[in-house]
Amino acid sequence: MIKVPLSNIKVPRINVVRRKRMGLPGAIPGSFLIMENAVPSKIFVFSYKTDFLEETETESVEEAFAFTDKHPDCFHWVDVRGLGSQEVLNFIQQKFGISNLVMEDIVNIHQRPKNDEHNGYSFIVSRMLELDKGLQLNNEQLSFLLFERLLISFQEDYKDVLDPVRLRLRKNTNGNIRKLGPSYLMYALMDTVIDHYFSIINRIGDEMEMVEDHLYQKPHKYLMYRIQGVKKLMIAMRRAAWPERDKINDLMRLNSPLVNEETRLYLRDAYDHTVQIIDLIESMREASTGLLDLYLSLMSNRMNEVMKTLTIISAVFIPLTFIAGVYGMNFAYENPKTGEILRGNMPELYIENAYVYILVLMAIIALAQIWYFARKGWFKN
Question: What is the model's pTM?
Fold first, then answer.
């Protein structure tokens, strides 16, 4: 296996996708506007019960709820992917009497995870994190409107991490996901999002191990950029995980008629997962800080080695420079005009082979210094 120097590798930047907040300071509360880059809405509908499942895909919100009306004895999941269709949001608001403030929070996708109880429904927000191949973290909002027999979810994009839940819903005919209604389905979706945090942490852990291995081989500025990128990822995950834990705790403790007792038992397990994630995030944040300190320490040691080498070279050449400087003054031993002998000047200027003698003397001094420095251990790693 050929090792490529880090200086020859184009290292991708670790980044967290940031989106601009909508609205201006002082805007009227409850007014919601579609973001410019929001994708058009696609609606996926699941109507299900223990021995029955039917699903459909449409872009018409009227067709989606007409589909649910055909199965009044079933539970329903209406999955709205994309927030770029104003008519979809307006229809849902008018049909179910959703508060303007709730609709504003659905569209303004910078909400922290929370649980708000309203008359006849609950509004829940989660943060869905996904790490791409270039270690860029996408932090998307996943919102829920929970009713007695209906769950409406809102996502920013068509892609998500919720396919395992859809597969369970299709395959597990006698499982809890079919029996316990929308509250359990919402728990399953939130639990899948939380479990995906573990896979992100594992990937970040692999990245930190790679950085640590390269640090011991040869510290490089690219490694510092990677460490700083990992710290940014940890901060973003911490902002999502801490309120997620508080939100699940609220769902467990609030006596909401929309969340049955069986679902509360499973929410405890999701709560434990969030606690584990927070512990891992804190540990990895400390580890990333330790790696940054290690990098700075190694760079400092490397600079000390450079300064040590330069000091040795300077120490060797100081006496040689002194000798060369003395004889470079060229004070004549004899006055060229009168022939008078100047006894206080340099008689060595007229000694035969004096140049060779001085070079030999300078070589002996340099070798003696190098031998002395070696005896002192200055050349050891």
Answer: 0.78
- 92 DSSP assignment: H
Phi, psi of 16 (to 5 degrees): -115, 125
pLDDT bin (cut points 50, 70, 90) of residue 116 is: very high
Give yes or no for a contact between 42 and 59, defined as CB atoms under 8 angstroms apart.
yes
Q: Which of 195, 194, 188 is nearest to 262 (CA)?
A: 188
**CB-count burial class (<10 Å; 0-12, 13-18, 19+) for 10:** exposed
Tokens 């790693």 belong to which residue?
381
Whether 3 has a pLDDT exceeding 50, the answer reads no
CA distance 110 to 19: 8
Residue 7 DSSP class: G
295 phi and psi angles, rounded to 5 deg: -60, -45
| Cα of 192 vs its chain's centroid, Å | 20
> 245-273 pLDDT, tens per residue?
999 999 998 888 899 989 999 999 999 99
What own/partner pairs with CB < 8 Å and gap ≥ 24 does 119-123 have? 120/96, 120/147, 121/96, 121/145, 121/146, 121/147, 121/258, 122/146, 122/256, 122/258, 122/259
Q: Measure the CA dihedral 177/182/185/187, to 10°.
A: -120
9 compared with 316, residue with greater pLDDT: 316
Report which residue type is found at 188: A
Kindly state the average pLDDT of the residues 229-244: 90
Strands (DSSP E) along the chain, which ranges? 15-16, 42-49, 52-58, 75-81, 114-118, 121-131, 136-146, 150-155
Alpha helix positions (H), 61-180: 61-69, 86-96, 100-107, 163-171, 176-179
Residues 6+ apart with CB under 8 A from 331: 342, 345, 346
Alpha-helical regions (H) of 144-255: 163-171, 176-179, 181-217, 221-253
Up-side HSE of residue 3: CA atoms within 13 Å toward CB? 6
Given a contact cutoff of 8 angstroms between Cβ atoms, the answer to whether 92 and 106 are in contact is: no
Which of 100-109, 135-144, 188-197 is predicted most confidently?
188-197
